[in-house]
Design goal:
The chain has one domain. The model has no long low-confidence stretch (mean pLDDT 96). By secondary structure, it is mainly α. It is elongated. It has six helices and no strands. The chain is 82% helix and 0% strand.
Length: 161
C-alpha cells in the first residue's frame, strides 16, 4: 500500500505531466510559455512535494529539490543573457519548475533531464535544418524539449530497480 508521502509525490508529478503537456502545446503553437501556467506548475509541484516531504520525513529531499530549482533558474538566466533572445523568459521560469521536480529525484536526474532537453531540441533543430524546413534564424520553441528532457530523466529514475 503506497504511503501518503508517495501518493503526494505521484500527484505532484501527475500535475506536472498535465500542465507540462499544456505548456508544450502552447509553446509549439505560439512560442510562449504563459506565466500563469508556469506558476501553476511550480505551485502544484512545491505544494505537493512539500507535503510529501513533511509526511514522509524527506525534508533533505525537498531542500535538494529547491536547490536544484535555483540552480537551473540561474543557469537558464545566464543562458538568456548570453543568447541574445534564443532563450526566453518563459524558458527560464520553466527551468525552475523542472529543477524542482528533477531535484526531488536526485542531482543525476537534474543533469540527465537538462542535457536530454538540449539533445532533443538540438536534434529537432538539426533535422529542420537538414530538411530545409528552417534556417539559422528560425525560432524553435524550446519549452517542449525542456519538458521532454525532464520526462526522459523521470522515466529513467522510476525505472531504476
Amino acid at each position: 500500500m503506497p504511503t501518503i508521502s508517495t501518493a503526494l509525490t505521484v500527484a505532484a508529478f501527475a500535475a506536472f505531466a498535465v500542465i507540462g503537456t499544456i505548456l508544450a502545446i502552447i509553446d509549439i503553437r505560439s512560442h510562449r510559455l504563459p506565466n500563469r501556467l508556469v506558476a501553476l506548475a511550480g505551485a502544484t509541484g512545491l505544494l505537493g512535494l512539500s507535503a510529501a516531504a513533511a509526511t514522509g520525513g524527506h525534508l533533505d529531499v525537498l531542500v535538494r529539490a529547491l536547490l536544484a530549482a535555483v540552480v537551473l533558474l540561474g543557469a537558464y538566466l545566464v543562458l538568456r543573457m548570453l543568447s541574445a533572445g534564443g532563450v526566453g523568459g518563459g524558458d527560464v521560469k520553466l527551468a525552475a519548475v523542472i529543477g524542482l521536480h528533477l531535484g526531488w529525484l536526485g542531482w543525476g536526474s537534474v543533469l540527465v533531464g537538462t542535457l536530454a532537453g538540449f539533445v532533443l531540441g538540438g536534434a529537432f533543430a538539426a533535422g529542420m535544418l537538414a530538411t530545409r524546413q528552417a534556417d539559422r534564424r528560425t525560432a524553435i520553441p524550446f519549452g517542449p524539449w525542456m519538458i521532454g528532457g525532464a520526462w526522459v530523466a523521470i522515466a529513467l529514475a522510476v525505472s531504476r530497480p
